[in-house]
């Protein structure tokens, strides 16, 4: 009986030893599946200068769009941009409508639904406004200073800045709009008094309208996060690590800074 059990044990070990390499060889990672498909699908919601879309041609540009193209080149596939909104950019990734979400703020809530890459740039919320607005003539330094009846704040619906300002405002009116153009038009047309957005984007808006626009970095800060790429929740550690190595290299060489400068110049040139 002992000899028989020993023989069975040897057979089991032999089966595991022969089966494991086969399993390892046939198991396909996420990026390998993308390579097999020949297309890297990039979920994109507009947020200049990080993600921009030409209204005439539909072509995408911006720092994070270019990073998506570069990762596609590493994989040897074509980059395909899928239009989405900030309200749907996480849900679309969960539903498998695209492989990667561009320019997504890292938050605990989102991290319970999807994976994130390392941050490609820091993020902070600022408040842009019209210096000639009589409601704000005395200036302000905090959100509390403008949280009052009669003040309207414009923000892109579903964004990290939407969630942050919604938690901070008790009295003022929040005007949630679908995109970047709509929020800026609300300030220009005086439909809203304050524009709530990421500081880099608001800085470009102020530079485009230097004669009347100003920007405030509120104290205390509304939010300080990292802007990363959203990745599927089911993605393995090795696939996430492969992408992180790609992002880290671009950060360490200063390439990401170069992409951001180029994108900012594109925004300012288009405004002239």
Can you give a write-up of this model?
This protein is of the alpha/beta class and 272 residues long. The chain has two domains: 30-121 and 225-271, 3-Layer(aba) Sandwich (D-Maltodextrin-Binding Protein, domain 2), CATH 3.40.190.10; 124-224, Periplasmic binding protein-like II (D-Maltodextrin-Binding Protein, domain 2). Helix content is 44%, strand content 22%. The protein has helices spanning 2-26, 30-37, 63-75, 89-94, 108-111, 143-146, 160-168, 180-188, 199-208, 237-252, 255-271; strands at 39-44, 52-53, 60-61, 78-83, 100-105, 115-116, 121-130, 152-156, 173-177, 194-198, 213-216, 224-231. Strands 1, 4, 5, 6, 7, 8, 9, 10, 11 and 12 form a ten-stranded mixed β-sheet that branches. The protein has a two-stranded antiparallel sheet with strand order 2-3.
Features:
272 residues; alpha/beta; D-Maltodextrin-Binding Protein, domain 2; ten-stranded mixed β-sheet; two-stranded antiparallel ribbon; 22% strand
